[in-house]
Write a structure and sequence with these properties.
homodimer; 210 residues; mainly alpha; Arc Repressor Mutant, subunit A; Tetracycline Repressor, domain 2; 2 domains; 10 helices; DNA-binding
DNA sequence: CAGTCTACCAAGCGCTTGCTTGGTTAGCAA
DNA sequence: TTGCTAACCAAGCAAGCGCTTGGTAGACTG
C-alpha cells in the first residue's frame, strides 16, 4: 500500500453519522470469520478491512469476543424475524414447512449468509458464558421449528420425533454452506424441494418453485 | 504440579517400543482438537497431555499442521474400512443402507469419535494443499455412499438425487456430534432408524434394533 | 565396551496476538 | 470562540505462539 490507512480515512467523511463504522466492522467481521474462522482472523485484519488501525477497533468493541458475540446476536434476531415471517404466512402445514425450509436456506445463502454461517458453526469460539447466552437466543428460533414440526406430526405428515427431526434437519441445512453454490445449476427452490421430499412422508411434497 | 514432566517421564519406561508415543500424541491431539479446536489447542497443551515438553513434539512431527493432517489421514482410513465392511455385509439394499447409516453414526460416537469429529469439522484449519489432499481421500469414502444411494434410487427406494441426498445426509449425521449423547435415552440403533425413516420412501424401514 | 541412535529436556528465538495508553483531529453546541 | 466529545492514530506492552538448537540419558548393536 502506498497510502496509509490514516490518509485513506481522511479521504472519507470523518465521524460518519451514527455508528455506521460499527456496522461496517460487524459486516467485515462476519465475512472474515466465515471465510477464515474466528481465531484465524486477527483484529489487525479486521481493522484493515474497514480502513482503520487495530487499536481503533477497541473504541467500538471492548474485546474481540464481543464482536463475535454481536455478530451472532444480531444475526439470530434476523433469523428469528425471517423464520417467523415464513411460519405465519403459509396456511397449509405442508406449505408452511416448505416455506420454513426455504427460509432457512435463504438465510444460509442470501445476503445474511456470512453471519448465519458463523452463528451455525463457530459458537464454540465463544467463552462458556457467551456460548450459553447465544444458545438461549437460538432456542426462540428452534421453538418456531418445533411448533411447526409438532403440528406436522399431529397431522400425520411426519412420523418421526420432532426434536430429533429438527436436529437432523439443522445439520442437513447447515452443511449446505459447504457444498451448495447459489449460482450453480441447482436453484434454491429445487434444493428446498429435495429437503422437503426427505422430510415429508407421502408424495404430497410442495412442488411450488423451480 | 509438584512433579515435573521430566520426572514423570522417567517413571515410565523410557524409549517405549515402536512409535507408541506417536500414537499417544495422535490420540491426545484428536481429543484436544475435538474439544477445543485446532487453533485453540497449543503444542504445549498437547505435549503436556502425553507428559513431554513442547519441543519434543517436533521430534515426532515436523509441524503442528502435520499432526492434524495425520489425525485426519488415519481416521479416514478407518472410516473407509468400517464403511466398506457395512457396505459388503448386507444383502438387501434396505438393510445395506441401514448398516451404512449405523456405521457412520458409530464412527461419530464410538471410540473413533474424536478423530472423526475433527475430520468432519476442522478441515478448514489445514492449508490449501493439505485440504485438497484430505478431500481427495474422503472421496473414496463418499464413493461407497454414492454407489449405495445410486443402487437404492434404481430400485425405487429413494426418489431424490443421490448426490444431493448424500450431502444432506452428511450434514444430518455429522451434526449429531453436537447434540446426540451416546449414553442418553436414545440408542444408536434408534437414531439410525430415525435417519433411515427420513431417507427411505415407504414404510419399508429396517426396524432391526431397539 | 565403544559407537550409534532414539527420545527427550532446557532454553529461548522471532513473531504475532489481543489489547492499552496518550495524544490528536474533526465536528458540533453553547 | 471556546469547550466537549466521538473517532481515530501511533506506539508499544505482555503474553503466548510454533518451532529451533544443542546437549544428554538410556537402550541397542557390533
Amino acid at each position: 500500500m502506498s497510502v496509509s490507512a490514516y490518509e485513506l480515512s481522511l479521504q472519507m467523511t470523518r465521524t460518519p453519522r451514527l455508528d455506521d463504522r460499527r456496522e461496517r466492522l460487524l459486516d467485515a467481521a462476519a465475512r472474515l470469520f466465515r471465510e477464515h474462522g474466528y481465531e484465524r482472523t486477527s483484529v489487525r485484519q479486521l481493522a484493515e478491512a474497514v480502513g482503520i488501525l487495530s487499536g481503533s477497533v477497541f473504541h467500538h468493541f471492548s474485546s474481540k469476543e464481543e464482536i463475535l458475540l454481536e455478530v451472532m446476536r444480531s444475526t439470530i434476531e434476523r433469523m428469528i424475524a425471517r423464520l417467523r415471517e415464513a411460519s405465519d404466512s403459509g396456511a397449509a402445514i405442508e406449505e408452511k414447512l416448505f416455506n420454513l425450509i426455504r427460509a432457512e436456506l435463504e438465510l444460509l445463502h442470501g445476503p445474511t449468509r456470512d453471519g448465519v454461517a458463523v452463528t451455525f458453526f463457530q459458537w464454540h469460539s465463544l467463552g462458556q458464558d457467551n456460548q450459553r447466552s447465544i444458545l438461549s437466543m437460538r432456542e426462540d428460533y428452534e421453538k418456531i421449528w418445533l411448533n411447526a414440526l409438532e403440528q406436522a406430526r399431529k397431522q400425520g405428515l411426519i412420523d418421526t420425533d420432532p426434536f430429533v427431526t429438527r436436529r437432523l434437519l439443522t445439520g442437513a441445512n447447515g452443511w449446505t454452506i459447504y457444498w451448495y453454490k447459489a449460482d450453480g445449476p441447482l436453484g434454491l427452490d429445487a434444493l428446498a424441494s429435495q429437503v422437503c421430499q426427505l422430510m415429508l412422508k407421502p408424495a404430497s411434497v410442495a412442488e411450488s418453485g423451480v
